[in-house]
Amino acid sequence: MDTTQLLKGVLDLAVLAVLKDEDGYGYDIMRRLRAAGLEEIGDASVYGTLRRLFQGGLLTTYVVPSESGPHRKYYALNAAGRDQLTRSGKVWRSFANTMETLLDDRGMAA
Question: Where in this chain does the record put each Transcription regulator PadR N-terminal domain (predicted)?
């Protein structure tokens, strides 16, 4: 199965989840997603998702000066983003449980 297609459907949720406990800047968010197992995530996809989530009112941003290069734009979940994370997380868990049941019922469990 092509995981890039799966990623398109859940990238918003993955980014919100990564920002749940700690703010981050673009490259840091990509690094955390990859460290979590989403190695195939593309840079442009993450930056586009951050822009879309910010424009959708789910993230706030602030700039932190960097001693070793350009200033970094940090992204943080706001109240709307936390609410969306909760809602989307429930939908994802329900969907994942349904798929797990389908696979188990057909003798395809891992």
Answer: 15-86
Task: Dig out the tokens for 76 from the structure.
Answer: 């943080």
DSSP assigned state of 2: -
Does the pLDDT of residue 2 top 60, yes or no? yes
Could you count the other beta carbons within 10 Å of the beta carbon of residue 62?
10
81 CB contacts (<8 Å, ≥6 apart)?
A: 16, 19, 53, 58, 59
Cα–Cα distance measured from residue 90 to residue 88, given in angstroms and rounded to the nearest whole number: 5
pTM of the model: 0.87
Tokens 């009112």 -> residue: 57
* The two structure tokens encoding residue 64: 């932190």
Q: Give the residue among 48, 58, 63 at the shortest CA–CA distance from 17.
A: 58
Give CA–CA dist 98/57, Å, rounded. Answer: 30
